Amino acid sequence: MANEKVCGFVHGVYLRLQSLIARFLSRIWRFLEKAWELGASEPRKVIHCLKVGVALSLVSLFYYMRPLYDGVGGTAMWAVMTVVVVFEYTVGATLYKCINRATGTFLAGSLGIGVHWVASQSGEKFEAIIAGILVFILASAATFSRFIPSIKARFDYGAMIFILTFSLVSVAGYRVEKLFEMAHNRVSTIVLGTSICIFTSMLICPVWAGNELHLLIYRNMEKLADSLDGCVAEYFNRDGTAKSSNHDFGKKMQGYKCALNSKASEESMANFARWEPAHGHFNFRHPWKQYLKIGAAMRNCACCVESLSGCINSQIQIPEFLKKNFSEVCMRLSSHCSEVLRALVVTMKTMTKSSMTDLLVEEMNFAVQELQNALKALPNQLISPHGSVNDAKGDTTSKQFIVPVIEIVPLATTISLLSEIAARIEGIVDAVDDLADLAGFKPATDNKSKQSQCTTDKIDDETMKVLQKV
Amino acid sequence: MANEKVCGFVHGVYLRLQSLIARFLSRIWRFLEKAWELGASEPRKVIHCLKVGVALSLVSLFYYMRPLYDGVGGTAMWAVMTVVVVFEYTVGATLYKCINRATGTFLAGSLGIGVHWVASQSGEKFEAIIAGILVFILASAATFSRFIPSIKARFDYGAMIFILTFSLVSVAGYRVEKLFEMAHNRVSTIVLGTSICIFTSMLICPVWAGNELHLLIYRNMEKLADSLDGCVAEYFNRDGTAKSSNHDFGKKMQGYKCALNSKASEESMANFARWEPAHGHFNFRHPWKQYLKIGAAMRNCACCVESLSGCINSQIQIPEFLKKNFSEVCMRLSSHCSEVLRALVVTMKTMTKSSMTDLLVEEMNFAVQELQNALKALPNQLISPHGSVNDAKGDTTSKQFIVPVIEIVPLATTISLLSEIAARIEGIVDAVDDLADLAGFKPATDNKSKQSQCTTDKIDDETMKVLQKV
User: Fold this and answer.
1) In chain A, which residues have their Cβ closer than 8 Å to the Cβ of B269?
2) What values do phi and psi take at B88, rounded to 5?
3) How many CB pairs under 8 A join A and B?
4) Where are the transmembrane segments (chains A, B) (predicted)?
5) How far apart are CA B356 and CA B365, in angstroms?
6) Chain A positions in Cβ-Cβ contact with residue B64 (cut-off 8 Å)
């Protein structure tokens, strides 16, 4: 009996252990699967990891090969540490950290040595006290400077390195006489580490923060255009209700959320981009700050699209004939809006200033006006008091349809949100125009980009249609 | 003559130099003024700076006093470095960095020593190659793990420290025989540094990330309520046009922007908060993630408020009598909406679950219904075709006012945006309810908070009024 009990117990423990291990393994498996997906979808991130490995191996190699080495804490460490701490995904971030690290170390080092010299003139006892007080004051001041927005954006890391180096020099300087030698060693290893980082980051598949920002902004603009189109099409159900259940379509409609949520990444990329040298089509002093304004204008517009998508799910149904009547005008406005956005995308993609954009904006405004006119013309066709249906029926000469006011509320909302969206798109246009002026975009020519030409052809057709109608 | 020329030149240089220095000084002065303002408006940041100074002085003192010290690169450095790098504004961020630093160092250190031992068995030549390959592989893998969102949120710094320590041990281990001594020194100094940081950060005026997040969320909620009130009041011009020029009022109306823009800070604070021990009213496993959901629901609502504020500036004027007619219903709905928000603020502030909120939500929904009813009742009073004014005038028995449809569009938009805002506020209510359940908020009692009682009294009055009207 006892044997059986023990057997059962052991078997139970075995089973529990087995399920525990199985769960653990499946969890790890899922984690690895996710990691694989991430790597497969963004191969540049995998390349970045290999770059870090290369940079570290280079630094290690340097120390394996040469007899430069003098002790753990000496020089080897600083170069390795610099590479690990300073190597970032984008070139801009790496440069920002390298320059900040070098400057912070240099400033704090020379200040520390100066202070050490002054303090050493006043006897050993005073030296410790003076050094302690200075560490306190300078560390507090440098920490405070990190809260000031303009410093935080550009020199946050530098301020930290300043505190670090100054404290180290003060603490070490109290005991070590070979201060200058140490300083020299540290500077040379930091130079070694930063230069390895900069070269690896710039020469092997560089990821430019500026380029990423540029891509992010115009991709978000594309997504905004897609979701605007999607929302209005969904509302007027042009292609039947089947579309809304389509997964891809739903994803497209949610595109405005990307524009709404990318503020933080835009800001950090703009901060890093200004440290980057000229690359691709971008000069050294490319107006990166203007991208933030474009991003803000886009968020402003995306907010309206989000409200519009909220109104789409409204309970109140618009009468069918009203929908038919307005769907064309609304769809035209929304397609003009998204055309303007797409023209801006082309402007940014090709970095050429197209005169087409102004024309498209005019057309968009014309479509807004058309919509307003359609609204003004509306009463002739259909609105009449809810309570007095029979009155209107009697008055057959004016051929009035009867619609209660409440049923036109969703339509009115859609219309005014669309007008508001058009107004806000003008804000984006202005921001992109400013960018084009600041960055000196060249005027678009026929040969310059096939893509822009493509869009232009399509636009011309539409323009002709509109003009024929007028 | 020549003398005069020289004199003039010297004078010119002197003047230019003077203006240059004056400009430089005024720039520094402005910077200092800004810094002073920042310090005066947020004294806790100044205290944080002093805390950093204290922690650094403590570490330095430790090394000035005790003869523990053995060389620059030895132990002193690691403690100072730990304090500078690890000390952050909030307790949560400091703890996150301390725990990550300690864990990363420990893992990488023991792995490094193990690898070193295995490699050292295979001869000196192979050792360097094996160490180099391992540094490459592990550094790449750890760098990749930093891209995985779940790791990035919790262990980003730890992964970096892992790479750093492993590389250092590999590089150093190749030459240094006193590896264990070095490891022991490093661990003991890191323990010293982190414990000084943790104690300074937790004992002297601690800034808890969790508390900050809690405050941020309910302050944004208050601002949202204010700006909703402000927008609707502005629209219906209850207090005349003078108000809109009032600076404070304008600032209040822009309050929704705080809710829109605080996603990044919410996320980082929620990440840090979960490292914090129990503090104030918050337990160790307080559901910080739920705050992010509340924040998202608020942003959702703020988007609608932003569209509403856009519509307010619309060109089209609503007819005066229509405005009069609807201003009361709309103002009532908006004040119900902001009352719900304020009740949620009280719930969060006092961390007590009030049954009043459900009642207020019902009232809000009732107000939405009222607004719909007012809309439904509208045609009896006023809407009629624009083009057939005379028809309606002739039909004097039904006493119809005549308004073109286009003039009711802004009103219709306001109404449907208000309804949408009410619906989205319900989303916020649900998120706060979930928080109350997850965090185990106690039911509110009369004695518990005067403030909540205060609000309740005010609410009761309004409730009675509404009920009397019904």
Assistant:
1) none
2) -120, 170
3) 297
4) 46-64, 76-96, 103-120, 126-145, 157-176, 188-209
5) 14
6) 128, 132, 171, 174
Structure ipTM: 0.81
**Whether the Cβ atoms of residue B60 and residue B198 lie closer than 8 Å to each other:** no
- Other beta carbons within 10 angstroms of residue B261's beta carbon come to 16
pLDDT at position B273 is: 92
The per-residue pLDDT for range A396-428, each reduced to its tens digit, is 334 445 566 777 788 888 888 888 899 999 999
3-state secondary structure chain B: CHHHHHHHHHHHHHHHHHHHHHHHHHHHHHHHHHHHHHHHHCHHHHHHHHHHHHHHHHHHHHHHHCCCCCCCCCHHHHHHHHHHHHCCCCHHHHHHHHHHHHHHHHHHHHHHHHHHHHHHCCCHHHHHHHHHHHHHHHHHHHHHHCCCHHHHHHHHHHHHHHHHHHHHHHHHHCCCCCHHHHHHHHHHHHHHHHHHHHHHHHHCCCCCHHHHHHHHHHHHHHHHHHHHHHHHHHHHCCCCCHHHHCHHHHHHHCCHHHHHHCHHHHHHHHHHHCCCCCECCECCCCCHHHHHHHHHHHHHHHHHHHHHHHHHCCCCCCCHHHHHHHHHHHHHHHHHHHHHHHHHHHHHHHCEECCHHHHHHHHHHHHHHHHHHHHHHHHHCCECCCCCHHHHHHCHHHCCCCECHHHHHHHHHHHHHHHHHHHHHHHHHHHHHHHHHHHCCEECCCCCCHHHHHHHHHHHHHHHHHHHHC
Handedness of CA B27, B28, B31, B33 (dihedral sign): negative
Asked whether B217 and B348 are in contact (CB, 8 A), the reply is yes
**Residue whose entry in the numeric block shows the structure tokens 């909120």:** B357
Give the nearest chain B residue to A374 (CA atoms).
Answer: B406
Residue type, B204: I
Coil, strand or helix: which one is A444?
Answer: coil
Contact state of B84 with A172 under an 8 Å Cβ cutoff: no
| Mean per-residue pLDDT, A323-338 | 86
Widest pairwise Cα distance in chain A: 111
Report field, pTM of the whole predicted structure over 0.95: no
Name the A residues in 117-176 with CB < 8 Å from any B CB: 128, 131-132, 135-137, 139-141, 143-145, 147-148, 160, 163-164, 167-168, 170-172, 174-176
Interface of B with A in 301-330 (CB under 8 A): 303-304, 306-307, 310-311, 314
- Do B405 and A406 lie within an 8 Å CB cutoff? no
Contact A164 B405 (CB under 8 A): no
B296 touches chain A (CB under 8 A): no
pLDDT at A94 over 90: yes
State how far residue A198 is from chain B, nearest Cα, in angstroms: 17
- In this structure, the strands spanning B352-353 and A352-353 are unpaired
Q: Is A294 helix (H, G, I), strand (E, B) or coil?
A: helix
Of A425, A213, A210, the residue nearest A298 (C-alpha): A425
- Which residues of chain B are within 8 Å of residue A140 when distances are taken between CB atoms? 49-50, 52-53
Measured between CA atoms, how close is A247 to chain B, in angstroms? 22
The list of chain B residues with pLDDT below 50 reads 68, 71-73, 238-244, 380-400, 447-460, 462-470
Return the residue in A72, A77, A137, A271 with the most chain B beta carbons within 10 A, the one to mutate for interface testing: A72
Interface touch B52/A163, C-beta < 8 Å: yes
The pLDDT of residue A177 is 61
How far is the C-alpha of B136 from the C-alpha of A53, rounded, in Å? 4
Phi, psi for B166 (deg, rounded to 5): -60, -45
Reported as type and span, the H/E element at residue A7 is: helix A2-41
Chain B residues with beta carbon closer than 8 angstroms to that of A372: 406
For domain A209-239+247-383+403-454, the CATH superfamily is: Phosphate transport system protein phou homolog 2; domain 2 (1.20.58.220)
